UniProtKB/TrEMBL annotation:
Source species of the chain: Amnibacterium setariae
Alphabetically ordered keywords of this record: Carbohydrate metabolism, Glycosidase, Hydrolase, Polysaccharide degradation, Signal, Xylan degradation
GO biological process: xylan catabolic process
Reactions it catalyzes: Endohydrolysis of (1->4)-beta-D-xylosidic linkages in xylans
Entry's Gene Ontology molecular function annotations: endo-1,4-beta-xylanase activity
Protein's name in the database: Beta-xylanase
Ranges of residues in domain GH10: 70-369
Top enzyme category: hydrolase
Length: 424
């Protein structure tokens, strides 16, 4: 066992599978093929690029709102092959300003079609975000606060209810640490937060989202990983607000923070006893953003190219970063923030594909981890006299095949024995 095997051992499980024929008889002393078909761990990315390719053009007025994630010139087949080659989760954009640029005309059909496209390919979909102080629609800039609150409550409730069964994971509220003090022009959500208080906004976000879908997984998500976020979480949990997972953003446009720094962050937030979702992760393959930039949004330049040396650095860092995250038992999901450099956030070369759709070394390095090193490849084994075979690997979905028939089974820590019956 290598050092890395030990750090991810908690992700692995062992089970004894009894294989039966269609009549329920043990398939004794027979050759079968065992293979993994899916990870229990969430390896995600954003699916913004797929909206125009699957769902069609954006609604009228949406182009007036700042956006990213439009991989123009790259075909759906190229993007799809790259996506399902690694990822089993996706995040789709529900920013209010682009989802409903004209009042009463939401972008529901396009989001639904794209979500269905992902689900059909075995990808879990998350909606982002239900409540945020940024990317707001211009039409509610002059509305009374009571009306803004009523609209926000209805939005959180209606989205989780309307997409229930298709999208059951949501960022209930985004970047609440700075919400009451954020200056963003005519922004009624910040005004509402000043009036109702930060805790009131968070309670509203979770209560309304859960009213729409009591079974949804609801996150609080933030880029501020300072003690201020910890204090906010303490306040929220003490107030009895139910949070299902803590979202942590790690946009590293100024360079990889390193294993020790990332582990220290994870340890600090793991103390709350909730799953950690690394919701927004980026590493650049060009020059690094200058360290004196405090707000990443302030760094906007005409061109930010990917370079050969930057791509090698990105590949090395993405392996180190993912090993650190998967090695920490509190982390449940890692969501990278951008499949391609085309239309990337802030124009940064942070994608895993170049702007022309070709794959960077970081893509291949991450795929090697997720689908090779951390994957149970098809393996031919022989059952014993009672039809049993031992299976060990990363937790997730598996399949056993005998001849022309196959059956699925889960590999989980709490199931030391499994029984599968092959179809007739």
């Amino acid at each position: 066992m290598t050092q890395d095997d030990r750090t991810v051992q908690h992700r692995r499980a062992r089970t004894e599978v009894t294989v039966e024929d269609a009549a329920g008889r043990p398939l004794a002393d027979a050759e079968v093929v065992v293979e993994q078909t899916g990870h229990a761990f969430g390896f995600g990315n954003i699916g913004f690029d797929f909206l125009p390719l699957v769902g069609g053009p954006a609604p009228e007025g949406a182009d007036e709102v700042e956006a990213f994630g439009t991989a123009e010139g790259i075909g759906l087949e190229t993007l799809a092959d790259a996506y399902v080659g690694i990822f089993n989760q996706t995040t789709l954009p529900f920013y209010w300003g682009r989802y409903e640029p004209r009042r009463g005309h939401p972008d529901e059909a396009r989001l639904r079609a794209t979500a269905e496209w992902f689900v059909a390919r075995g990808v879990t979909v998350k909606g982002h975000p239900l409540l945020w102080h940024t990317v707001q629609p211009a039409w509610h800039a002059d509305l009374p606060l009571d009306e803004v609150e009523a609209l926000q409550r209805a939005r959180s409730r209606d989205l989780t209810a309307g997409f229930r069964g298709l999208i059951d994971v949501w960022d209930a509220i985004n970047e609440a640490v700075i919400m009451p003090v954020f200056e963003n022009g005519a922004n009624r959500i910040t005004d509402l937060a000043k009036e109702r208080g930060r805790l009131g906004m968070i309670r509203m976000a979770f209560d309304e989202a859960r009213a729409g879908n009591p079974d949804a997984v609801l996150l609080i998500n933030d880029f501020d990983l300072s003690p201020a976020y910890e204090r906010l979480l303490e306040e929220v949990l003490e107030a009895g607000v139910r949070i299902d997972a803590i979202g942590l953003q790690t946009h590293m446009h100024q360079g990889f923070r390193g294993e020790e720094a990332i582990t220290a962050i994870l340890d600090r937030f793991a103390r709350f006893g909730l799953p950690l979702h690394m919701t927004e992760t980026t590493l650049v393959s060009g020059h690094l953003m200058p360290p004196e930039i405090e707000d990443l949004n302030d760094y906007r330049i005409p061109e930010w190219p990917s370079t050969p040396e930057g791509e090698e650095r990105q590949a090395d860092e993405i392996v180190r970063h993912y090993r650190t995250l998967v090695g920490h038992p509190a982390v449940q999901v890692v969501n990278y923030w951008g499949l391609t450099d085309a239309g990337s956030w802030l124009g940064a070369p942070s994608g895993l594909l170049r702007a022309d759709g070709s794959r960077k070394p970081a893509y291949e390095a991450l795929r090697s981890l997720v689908r090779e090193e951390w994957w149970h490849a098809p393996t031919t084994v022989r059952t014993d006299g009672e039809g049993r075979v031992a299976v060990e690997g990363f937790t997730g979905a598996y399949r056993v095949t005998a001849g022309d028939t196959a059956a699925a089974f889960p590999l989980r820590h709490d199931e030391p024995r499994s029984q599968v019956r092959l179809p007739a």
